[in-house]
Amino acid sequence: MTNYLATLPAFLAWFPVCASLLAGFAAIYIRVTSWAELRLIRAGNVAAAVSFSGALLGYALVVASVMLHAVSLVDLIVWGLVGLVVQVAAFYVARVLLGADLPRRMEDGQLSSGIMLASTSLSAGVLNAATMAF
34-54: per-residue pLDDT in tens? Predict the structure, then answer.
């Protein structure tokens, strides 16, 4: 008979670490942006929702790739933190490219800015995840 729960111990060890990395990234990302992401999202600001969603998905791709290739929980944590740094750096690059008035445009709900930030985060996440596969 097949034991369907044979990998449950690994899941119980790895999933909380991955969820903690994602939550840590979200907390750092919210502090890195100079606008109040969650307040804007709660108020219906689509640009902020798109931007934040792209950042979360971009980093989740990184964590998923790291999890697939890590040899231990320590390896997962170390490379998850490296990925976090890359994702934050991508935000700063996008911020420079989009200009000094980006915070105002995000607060105004300018969707094009939110989409560009989300695309930058997702692109960085895909590249980051792929390079961590070696």
Answer: 999 999 999 999 999 999 999
